[in-house]
# Entry
Amino acid sequence: MRPYADAEADLLIDSVKQLIGDHVGEAGATLDVIAKDLDVHPKTLTRRLTLNGVTFGQLKDDVRFAIAKRYIATGMAFEDISWRLGFKDPSGFYRAFKKWSGRAPTRYRAYR
# Structure
């Protein structure tokens, strides 16, 4: 049983995703920054997310994947997408995208 009501858990998860999206591409999309924005300790945020079946890393990946798909649909260069999502280099983006979607971003774009 989840300790929080579904609506409250959904609100927390949605708030975290929104804040990650606001900070993506900056060095600020970290657990510490997001927790500070929510006015909770990072360990408290981690515990609340875990109690609701998700991790901060999963939510960050979900947000980055959703944004990456939108950027790919516009035809944006993969290197630009990489930087906008906060990856240190394009190869990190390629590996992450393949993990998220099961295919390389070039193949994803080709089959859209």
